[in-house]
Each structure stands twice: as structure tokens, then as C-alpha cells.
Amino acid sequence: MDDFWHLIADQLQDRVSGPMKFRIVLQPLMATFLAIRSGWADAKSGKDPYFWSFLFARGRRLDLVKSGWESVGRLFILAVVLDLTYQYLVQPSMHLRAALLVACILAILPYVALRGIVNRVAAHLIKRPPAAGTAGDGGRR
């Protein structure tokens, strides 16, 4: 198992400066765009932040995974394909586990981290009028 992590560390270091390095920036940017879009939609519909809900809403985890996969699934698959292409062009062998890990780091991690943050920020930006008879109008009509 230590060999696997050593291999991953070496390969990640090579990916930053080697050919196809554009994806190291492009994929997290795309994940950020998708997270902003999904987080804004979550805030509009009044949903809780994504990762927080995933951790603590046991009955809804499958729905949350489906929702996240609908948003970032294609980007994840693209990240795997690009990493396997990189491995084919540059390295003597191909490692699917390494490609999956890199795809998670470049696509899934930024998406999950930012979707909840965007939700919280957007929820504060969206102004909702107070309901009648609440503290917002002092109970007067």
C-alpha cells in the first residue's frame, strides 16, 4: 500500500509540469462553475449545504449522491479519460486507481467543497420577504 501512495505522489508531481498540464487548472475551474450553479440552485430552493447534508442526513444520502453525480459526473469521467490519456502518452504503464484518485482530486473535491459554501453565501444574498405576522413587521398590519 505504501508503494501505491508513493506512486501517486510521484505521478501527481509529474502531472503538474508535464504535458496536458492545462487540465490541472481547467478541471477544478469547471468543478467550481458546476458547484456555483448547483449551490445557487440549492439556496433558491432552501436546501441545506450539500456536504453538511451528506454527513448528517442519513435518509437522503443516496439522493444527494445522485444530485451531485448529475452535476459533476461528466466532468469526473472526463478527468479520468484525460488522466488515462496522459498516462498513455507519458508513462510506461497505466494505473486506473491513480486516474480515479486524480479525478477525485481535480473534479469531486472542489465541487463538494464549494457547493455548500456557495449555498451559504447565496442564501444570505437572496432576500426573502418575511411572512405576515412575523417579527419582521412587529405583528402589525
Query: Strand tally, please?
Result: 0
**Distance from first to last alpha carbon:** 69 Å
Evaluate the radius of gyration: 20 Å
**Domains, number:** 1
Write down the overall geometry: elongated
Strand fraction equals under 5%
Specify the number of helices: 5
Overall pLDDT metric? 80
Unreliably modeled segments = none
Description:
The protein has helices at residues 2-17, 22-45, 50-56, 61-90, 96-125. It is an all-alpha fold and 141 residues long. The model has no long low-confidence stretch (mean pLDDT 80).
In short:
With 141 residues, the protein is mainly alpha-helical.
Sequence-ordered SSE layout with sheet pairings:
Blueprint: H1 2-17, H2 22-45, H3 50-56, H4 61-90, H5 96-125
Main traits of this protein?
141 residues, mainly alpha
